[in-house]
Design brief:
single chain, 441 residues, alpha/beta, Rossmann fold, 6-stranded mixed β-sheet, 4-stranded antiparallel β-sheet, 14 helices
């Protein structure tokens, strides 16, 4: 049976051998200050509920959600609030943040009030997930309680666990699945309890055969959960491509997965649901991969949110020599960093450091009309044409050629023999179009 996939995509150097066999190490922050940006999610920033000088405990709420599409934030350590001020985030922006000085005692506050899952209503389960501050931990940061509250729950037919981890170099999800698969399956069962007509899908790329066997064995007696094997290809884990590959249902930029009867959650997000609903633990830690050819000892770490990136780099032995590029995340979808003195947030998946930066060394040339970007585009667009239109700021033509359907995966830039910055041009144009629409209401 052929493995499930979608049209388009690319095959990149995976780079996962650096860390895939490195078991998760629990890492305590070594820097005294921990920084908690108030915007760690899509939607309205959280609002502080602590003041400068307050002593806080681990698992204590320090910022409250300011709306339905928002998420609270919890302290990952015990200590004293020493500042509420602008601090730099991974995107390089100065953003309102709460700063806590760690007292190294790690005294815990009372956990969330939970009961046995069989005694909780669906509304109570969703409220625990909301109170725990759980968001999409695969990068987008969409508040999970919103995703689990579709207009018509009866029309949800599939709950998909995104176990693909198609981004090169990243292995945090793989290590989580190998070391804590029971929590993943238990978390998926919690979500399925909210949608009685849905089946659960554990969608795993075929470059993880040991993981596939492990999950299949765990699901032998789970009639509502099955493992689907995906072809290893980037961006197999992109939400639209994942839904199509596993269910043959299609969505576009005007739709949500729920419109196609699907709910999609990342591995770390599902495990966070387990921790919240079963153990009463709010979200204040995650797995981060520190990798790349510039890192002395690449590793996977369980990290407290608020921890400085420098602490992770130091724990991995630092750099062999000064890297030309450091990325928060992976090389395809991550953010290039000019400063590593930034905090780990709920959506921080990796630090990837490279000795060389081939992108900066390449000089873009003229399009040779080879069509490779068209073949690679998972959204079936014409990236070369869209980039030309973007350079001329023609919004009308850009929208007419479906530019808003771009998922910004980077396949076109990667495959282009002329080294054109196709994704960057299209991404900027998409942002301009959406911003202008928002202004117009």
């Amino acid at each position: 049976m052929p493995h499930l996939t979608f049209k388009g995509g690319i095959h990149t150097y995976e780079g996962k051998d650096l860390t895939k066999d490195k078991k998760i190490i629990d890492l305590l922050p070594s820097s005294p200050e921990l920084v908690y940006p108030l915007s760690q999610h899509i939607g309205a920033p959280a609002v502080p509920v602590v003041s400068i000088g307050d002593r806080v405990l681990r698992y204590q709420k320090i910022a409250e959600a300011s709306g339905f599409v928002s998420s609270p934030i919890y302290s990952s350590v015990s200590g004293t609030v020493t500042a509420i001020e602008n601090r730099r985030n991974v995107q390089g922006l100065m953003t309102p943040s709460i700063v806590i000085t760690n007292d190294d005692l790690y005294e815990e506050a009372q956990r969330l009030n939970v009961r046995p899952i069989a005694e909780m209503t669906k509304e109570e389960v969703i409220n625990v997930i909301r109170e725990a501050g759980i968001v999409g931990m695969g990068g987008a940061g969409f508040p999970t309680h919103v995703k689990l509250s579709p207009k018509d729950p009866q029309k949800i037919h599939y709950v998909i666990a995104n176990c693909a981890e198609c981004e090169p170099y990243l292995t945090s999800d793989y290590r989580r699945m190998m070391e804590e698969p029971e929590k993943l399956v238990a978390g998926l069962k919690i979500i399925l309890a909210l949608f009685e007509h849905a089946k659960g899908i554990l969608a795993v790329e075929d470059n993880k055969p040991d993981c596939i066997r492990l999950l299949k064995d765990l699901c032998l007696d789970e009639p509502r959960i099955g493992v689907k094997v995906l072809k290893t290809k980037y961006p197999q884990g992109s939400e639209r491509q994942l839904i199509y590959a596993t269910t043959s249902r299609a969505i576009n930029s005007t739709m949500l997965p729920a419109d196609a009867g699907c709910i999609v959650n990342n591995v770390d997000t599902i495990v966070a649901i387990y921790h919240a609903v079963i153990e009463g633990r709010p979200l204040c830690e995650r797995i981060v991969t520190v990798t790349g050819d510039a890192v002395k000892y690449p590793q996977n770490y369980r990290v407290y949110t608020g921890t400085c990136y420098d602490d992770l780099i130091d724990a991995a032995g630092g750099f062999k020599q000064r890297p030309e590029k450091i990325i928060s995340g992976g090389p395809m979808m991550g953010f290039a960093l000019f400063d590593t003195h930034v905090p780990v947030t709920k959506s921080s998946s990796a630090i990837t450091a490279f000795l060389k930066d081939p992108v900066s060394e390449s000089v873009p040339g003229a399009c040779i009309n080879c069509g490779r970007c068209v073949d690679a585009c998972p959204s079936r667009l014409i990236p070369s044409k869209l980039a030309d239109i973007a350079e001329h700021y023609d919004e009308e033509k850009f929208v007419k050629l479906n530019g808003l359907e771009c998922v910004e995966c980077g396949c076109c830039s990667f495959i282009c023999p002329a080294k054109r910055h196709l994704t960057q041009e299209i991404k900027m144009m998409r942002q301009n179009v959406l911003a202008n629409r928002k202004k117009k209401g």
